[in-house]
Amino acid sequence: MGSARKMAYNITEDDNQNIQKELFCSPELTKEIHLQLVCLSVFNILLSLTAFFGNVVILIALHNETSLHPSTKLLFRCLATSDLCVGLLSEPLIVSYWMSIVTGRFDICPYALASNVITSLTLCSVSLLTLTALSVDRLFALILEARYRHIVTFKRTMACVIFFWVVSVVSTTSYFWNYVITVWYRYIGVLLCILVSTFAYAKSFIILHRYTRQLQTDYQPAYQPKPRHLKRYISAIYTALWLQFALVICYLPFGITEALTSQIGLSSSFFVVRESAATLVFLNSSLNPILYYWKIRAVRQRVKVIVKKLSRQQQS
């Protein structure tokens, strides 16, 4: 594996398709790593199943849950849907890409790769935008209080969700005719989402800290949340923050390998590292249902009911 030569490249919008075919579907690059690709394929098949079934259960639980605000529940459902699609589409497509390499089907390899790239970029974009919206939603719930339900309505949130899907699909499908648009969308979009989320969480914790200090004094302004609601605000913010943290941890290694690939080129060993980092991205879709179950009490109770019903059906 160490004997494979490195292949350097510079991506331009004119030669992008040739780069994919000659580099990422190169027999010279991948001939010594078939075993590693098979292992990654098996692991991703397992992740595909856990992501699909885990998010199906979460979507059922959210559908039957009435204690969450409709707008917040819609954002959680959007995130769970994108994670479900990762298990249903992205992971099978990347497995088909790896298997086309292992079996020597380099005629279909570029098509499998392009399908995976488009699907994965779209779903990752939706997830990132949705988590950013969740951070803003939690800030609005904190600062608007009683006005929150009148301002952050289900219809407005639905319009945002539709916008997330449309802009994600349009920007990533530009990959076929202008790769530069896709690259700049990734860089600018990720940066803006990080900045907005960071501001929203920082502002939320500053407000919560002020409220907590005011509770310890006799001065309690009219806009301060009632003490019994303060704990719920904190729990909701930490839930969204945990989801954001999991996404950053899972996505960061792939972002680093992408940056290194464009600078130092590819070797067989680094290609395995890059594809392993892509697997870590997909792992996020299997982790999120666990975080829903752990951090959202209402969802946890609904999931328990669903599991009990399934157990009774199997026993009968």
Walkthrough of the structure:
With 316 residues, this protein is mainly alpha-helical. Helix content is 82%, strand content 0%. It is built from eleven helices and no strands. Helix 10 packs across helix 11 (297-315). The radius of gyration is 22 Å and the shape is globular. It starts with 15 loop residues before the first helix and ends with a helix. Residues 1-17 have low confidence and may be disordered.
Report the span from N to C terminus: 54 Å
Specify the structural class.
mainly alpha
Give the helix tally.
11
Q: What is the share of helical residues?
A: over 70%
Shape: globular
Bin the strand percentage: under 5%
Low-confidence segments, ≥5 residues, pLDDT <50? 1-17
Mean pLDDT across the residues is 84
| Number of E-type strands | 0
Short key terms for the protein model shown above:
disordered N terminus; globular; mainly alpha; 316 residues
